[in-house]
Amino acid sequence: MKKIVQINEKIKRFNKRIHIPGDKSLSIRFVLMASQAIGKSVAYNLLYSEDVLSALNVIGKLGINFNIKRNYCEIYGKGLDGFSFKDNTTINAGNSGTLARLIFGLLLNTKKSVILKGDESLSKRDFSRVIKPMKNFGQNIKSKKNKLPINIKGTNYPRPINYFEAKGSAQVKSCILFAALKTAGEIKIKCIPSRNHTEKLFEYLKLPIKIKKGKNLEIISYKGIKNFKGFKYKIPGDISSSSFFIVLTLLSKNSKILIKNINVNKTRTGIIDILKIMNAKIQLKNKRVYKGENIADIFVESSKKLNPINCPVEMNSRVIDEFLLIFLVCAVKSKGVSKFKKIGELRNKETDRLKFADKLLKKIGIKTKITKDSFTIYGNPNLNLKKKYEIKEFDKDHRACMVSFIAALSLGGNWIIHDVDSIKTSFPNFISLLKNLGAKIN
Ligand code: S3P
Q: What is the count of structural domains for the chain?
């Protein structure tokens, strides 16, 4: 893939039906859970992106065999105590925060130590959010300022913990649940609701998880050590990847798109709800349930003007990876002021996404106000871009890169986008799908 691309033309009207690759969160969870099962597990439509390949490499280094085929991937788990590796084995999570956080849970009781490292961007991120609960479990962790590389050694006597997870982070919750698999007593997590794929996988595998749902808080408990057998899973399409196409369609003239077989789990569909509140035309068709996950086809039509939004704070964790796209829609499709509060978590992603959004919108002539954890956008649906726009310095954040493509293809002007290879972490065929819709990308 080229590192720098140029886009000098808006995309022409399109009316297409597309397939999006497998969900990244579910693909990583499948790989990690399958590594703990007894016997062979098989995933169809596993996302073969760099983050998921890193997950496969990590379990490989920890002694688990796998087979990557074009249409499916097999993993040969050896049960909850099945990792086998030499002392001081280095595992590399690449760019994946999800993999790096979740793997702590699975290393709760390993006898040998592991050095966890990652790429330059992951090495700047803070791991205190998982180090704290894992130390409570009794895991031995050594790090400099909670950053990678981190040395992890298990404990022989995991302590069941009670933990309050206040960030709405699915990574933290899932890390604790993975550790709970290996803990004899009962663990309890009180948490702000966030994506619940781990819980749904546990339920599907008949593992003893209990969930008490409140409006803004949930209590999840898990008791005991229970082995489980290898399983088969067909990974549905990724809603976060689909969102680039949902927004491209909304922002383009006279266009329509049908996106097939997408995971529309309620904890992930904040973008659809927000865009609908703003008056966008989006429908879920052919709804069904697969192994506890909701699946549907998403149908979207272009919009003329949309309404601005005062985004309800409870939405934040349901739209955490789609904020950049929502900001773009508010900026260029709605007349009036849109407000987002308590979104400081965006500063802790692959890059500081709040800062990136602010710079991007200001570059195209949109007025914004930014604070430590809030963002206000003064939308202008009458933008007509003619200048040159260069996008670089985003710490190779795949989503920052892809949102720049959507802006370039829908707003006009001459764009140069750097570090395009970052897209491979989550959505390797993003550019070829855009080209199939008629996008001119050089
Ligand atoms: C993810 C959780 C979210 C999300 C990330 C994937 C997951 O992170 O931003 O892309 O698969 O659990 P947080 O847990 O930090 O909110």
A: 2
